[in-house]
Amino acid sequence: AAVLVQAWWRGTLVRRALLLAALSACTIQRWWRRVLAGRHEAGRWAALREYSRKEWAAVRLQSWVRMWLVRLRYCRVLHAARIIQLYWRWHNCPTRGCIQGNYDMREKQLNLHLEISLGSQVYKIHQSIPLPIKD
Q1: Which residue stretches of the chain are H helix?
Q2: For the chain, what are the domain ranges?
Q3: Which of 120, 113, 81, 114 minimizes the C-alpha distance to 97?
Q4: DSSP tag of 135
Q5: H or E element that contains 119
Q6: pLDDT of 72-85, one tens digit each?
Q7: Span 50-71, pLDDT tens digits
Q8: In contact, 109 and 129? CB cutoff 8 Å
Q9: Which pLDDT score is estimated for 97?
Q10: In the prediction, which pLDDT does 94 show?
C-alpha cells in the first residue's frame, strides 16, 4: 500500500511539474508573440512614414517644376511684350499715332488691353491668352 501511495504522490508531483512547465512555456510563447507583433507593427509604421515622405517629396518636386515652367512661360510672354513695346515706341511718332495699354496675369491666362489711336480713329483690343498651367 505504501508503494502505491508513493507512486501516486510521485505521479502527482511529476504532473504538477509538467503542468507548471507547460504554463511557463505558454506564458513565454505569448510574451514572445506579443514582442514579434509589436516589432511587426513598428515596421509597418516605419514603412508608412517612409512611403509618405517619398510621396511628399515627389509632390513637392512636381510643384516646383510646374512653378518653374509657368515662370518660364510668363518670362517669355513678358519679354515678347517688352520687345513689342520697344519697337512700337521706336517707330511711334505723332503723325503715326500712339498705343496705350496694359496687361495682367490672372489664374490661367494673360489679359491684354490695348488702345491704338491713329489720327481720329481709336482701336481697342482686348485679348486673353491662355497659359498652359496644369492643375
Answers
A1: 2-91
A2: 2-91, 95-135
A3: 120
A4: -
A5: none
A6: 999 999 999 988 88
A7: 999 999 999 999 999 999 999 9
A8: yes
A9: 64
A10: 53
Whether residue 134 contacts residue 63, with contact meaning beta carbons closer than 8 Å, is answered with no
Residue 10 has φ and ψ, to the nearest 5°, of -65, -40
Q: What are the Cα distances from residue 71, in Å, to 42, 48, 118?
A: 43, 34, 35
Q: What is the spatial distance between Cα 124 and Cα 115, in angstroms, rounded to a whole number?
A: 5
On whether the CB atoms of residues 77 and 129 are closer than 8 A, the answer is yes
Q: How many Å apart are CA 9 and CA 12, to the nearest integer?
A: 5
Q: For position 37, what pLDDT does the model report?
A: 95
Angstrom distance (rounded) from CA 66 to CA 132: 10
Measured torsion, CA atoms of residues 122, 125, 78, 67, in degrees rounded to the nearest 10: 160
